[in-house]
């Protein structure tokens, strides 16, 4: 167990190291002098020189990497060109929105994807199963921003049940009631990912139901509902849990679009705006942080997977 | 040859949903190939007097805020959808197949290459694509490369898995013991056996390329705005959604139905596949 954990952490660290080189190279792969591009045409040579100095662009490239990576390890991701504040501050400003959006979305995914997947599996081959599997495939084929636009049209502009855009912090006036701003975005964001979890739950339920211990349980005369819940579901959920790391990565990607549609002040929208503003340090910082998060979540998923299923060799 | 064709056509015809999906894809293909003959108006013909018209006989899908015919633009949009799909699939296959096969044949090289694929996979896919767009600049070709890079990783992984398994098949070992060269084995044994997994992968990649391209267009970082793509149509007309909600219905439906049809086809093909490889292609 200990060896496995250390090895797994080492592999994640190696991936992070390689990813950090990719992210670091990003600013140097942009054609032209990144500083002039970031400052625009109106910049004076002195400003350009000052920013080059600040970003350490005159040092040899490996020194630049070591300085950048060293600072990142100490929680310093550089300064935003546009906001003139530390990148960590920019990320922290969007974190509340993005984290809450991701959490609420995960709740929808679990509440919809898993039960419906179970239903499809126990009704395998019937029209219920075919209908639900077809629905899952349809949901996975719908652009989240398009769903978002029609959710706004129907539930915000039409019926007026929910606010159409923006999100005031729950820590400022309004409190938890502000979560209603995240309701429509989270539904749009959940749709394709819930479809994925639905299909995965169904498939792994069917896989497990072919195992010997399920046949033994049925042969012993255990009630079918108990076999499904105690024997099949428990084991099938392992595969579903292992997909959460992947789902999380998909959420981050699609949140970029969803936050833009609903004008949410989250990290995703900040990335899009930073691209349009050529605020490269922010893009670099956000990508580095999300890669870290992804690796940590995958690490936890892998380790918990092996804790939950004693059959998996450690 | 006909028998081979039937292996693919029979499952499609025997399932009504798959038949409908196939039919829709043929319609999209025809729209892309024969757009000038199908579309009643040029896609960029501006007609300010008739702007934001609801659907009627003259304008089947209505008109947008420049008075352009939405139906004609949706028909022309199929061209970019086809171009993006073919481009992304070609890029993903042309890069993923050699990486996967080389990694399976040469384990030392494979450890390095698959490690690099893992690193790319640790980036959230849209952020990876956006990062590449920042470096390369905006444009159709760059959108294809950016989305293609995402599917390079999954394709290389699948090819690697299939090739590893094929490599230890008795007939491959037999061929090797009889002195067959690596290139010969790849050409005669590995590539032919990879056709059906690759076909399945291609249809899923084609489907998700549509969604990726639409997202890039919507963020204003995909195809240039003058190109009538479905994503651009949604991006341009989104502010008119309360006044003319039908404007967003058709381009959106085209994206959904195209992606859905391709996913249905991918599913049907996967069900026909060798069960040993099926589990590698996801559920």
Automatic annotation (TrEMBL), chain A:
Membrane topology: Multi-pass membrane protein
Family the UniProt entry places it in: Belongs to the binding-protein-dependent transport system permease family.
One Gene Ontology term from the biological process aspect of the record: transmembrane transport
GO cellular component: plasma membrane
Transmembrane region(s): 12-30, 99-122, 134-162, 182-200, 232-252, 282-301
Compartments it resides in: Cell membrane
Keyword field: Cell membrane, Membrane, Transmembrane, Transmembrane helix, Transport
Main location: membrane
Record carries keyword S-adenosyl-L-methionine: no
Top-level taxon of origin: Bacteria
This protein's name: Peptide/nickel transport system permease protein
From TrEMBL, chain B:
Record domain ABC transmembrane type-1: where: 78-266
Keyword hit for Transport: yes
Topology of the protein relative to the lipid bilayer: Multi-pass membrane protein
Superkingdom classification of source: Bacteria
Keyword annotations of the record: Cell membrane, Membrane, Transmembrane, Transmembrane helix, Transport
CDD domains named in the record: TM_PBP2
Keyword Cell membrane: yes
GO biological process: transmembrane transport
A Pfam family this chain is assigned to: OppC_N
Subcellular location: Cell membrane
TM ranges: 12-39, 80-105, 117-137, 143-163, 198-224, 244-266
Gene Ontology CC entries for this record: plasma membrane
Family the UniProt entry places it in: Belongs to the binding-protein-dependent transport system permease family.
Name of the molecule in the record: Peptide/nickel transport system permease protein
């Amino acid at each position: 167990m200990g060896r496995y954990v250390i090895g797994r952490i080492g592999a994640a660290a190696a991936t992070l190291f390689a990813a950090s080189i990719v992210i670091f190279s990003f600013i140097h792969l942009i054609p032209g002098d990144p500083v002039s591009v970031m400052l625009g045409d109106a910049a004076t040579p002195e400003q350009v020189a000052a920013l080059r100095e600040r970003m350490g662009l005159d040092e040899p490239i490996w020194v630049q990497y070591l300085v950048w990576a060293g600072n990142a390890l100490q929680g310093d991701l550089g300064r935003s060109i546009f906001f003139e504040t530390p990148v960590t501050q920019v990320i922290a400003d969007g974190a509340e929105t993005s984290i809450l959006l991701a959490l609420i979305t995960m709740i929808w995914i679990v509440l919809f994807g898993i039960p419906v997947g179970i239903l499809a599996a126990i009704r395998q081959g019937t029209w219920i199963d075919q209908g639900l599997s077809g629905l899952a495939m349809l949901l996975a084929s719908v652009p989240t921003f398009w769903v978002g636009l029609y959710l706004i049209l129907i539930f915000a502009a039409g019926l007026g049940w929910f606010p159409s855009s923006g999100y005031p912090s729950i820590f400022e006036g309004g409190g938890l009631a502000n979560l209603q701003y995240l309701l429509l975005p989270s539904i749009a964001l959940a749709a394709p990912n819930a479809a994925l979890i639905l299909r995965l739950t169904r498939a792994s339920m069917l896989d497990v139901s072919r195992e010997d211990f399920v046949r033994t349980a049925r042969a012993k005369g255990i009630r079918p509902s108990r076999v499904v819940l105690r024997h099949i579901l428990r084991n099938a959920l392992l595969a579903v849990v292992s997909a959460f790391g992947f789902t999380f990565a998909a959420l981050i990607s699609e949140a970029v679009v969803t936050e833009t549609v609903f004008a949410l002040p989250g990290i995703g929208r900040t990335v899009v705006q930073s691209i349009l503003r050529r605020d490269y340090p922010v893009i670099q910082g956000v990508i580095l942080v999300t890669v870290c998060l992804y690796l940590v979540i995958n690490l936890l998923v892998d380790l918990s997977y092996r804790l939950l299923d004693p059959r998996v060799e450690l | 040859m006909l028998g081979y064709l039937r292996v693919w056509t029979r499952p499609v015809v025997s399932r009504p949903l798959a038949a409908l999906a196939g039919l829709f894809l043929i319609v999209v293909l025809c729209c892309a190939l024969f757009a000038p003959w199908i579309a009643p108006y040029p896609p960029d013909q501006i007609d300010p007097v008739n702007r934001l018209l609801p659907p009627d006989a003259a304008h089947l899908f209505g008109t947008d805020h420049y008075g352009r015919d939405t139906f004609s633009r949706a028909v022309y949009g199929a061209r970019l959808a086809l171009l993006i799909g073919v481009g992304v699939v070609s890029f993903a296959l042309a890069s993923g197949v050699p990486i996967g096969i080389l990694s399976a044949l040469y384990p030392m090289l494979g450890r390095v290459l698959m490690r690099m694929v893992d690193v790319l996979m640790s980036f959230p896919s849209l952020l990876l694509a956006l990062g590449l767009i920042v470096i390369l600049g905006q444009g159709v070709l760059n959108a294809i490369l950016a989305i293609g890079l995402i599917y390079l990783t999954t394709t290389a992984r699948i090819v690697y898995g299939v090739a590893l398994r094929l490599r230890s098949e008795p007939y491959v070992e037999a061929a090797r013991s009889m002195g067959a060269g690596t290139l010969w084995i790849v050409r005669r044994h590995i590539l032919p056996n990879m056709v059906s997994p690759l076909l399945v992968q291609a249809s899923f990649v084609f489907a998700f390329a549509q969604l990726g391209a639409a997202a890039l267009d919507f963020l204003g970082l995909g195809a240039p705005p003058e190109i009538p793509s479905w994503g651009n149509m949604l991006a341009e007309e989104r502010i008119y959604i309360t006044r003319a909600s039908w404007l967003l219905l058709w381009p959106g439906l085209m994206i959904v139905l195209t992606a859905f049809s391709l996913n249905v086809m991918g599913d049907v093909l996967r069900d026909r596949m060798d069960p040993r490889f099926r589990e590698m292609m996801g559920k």
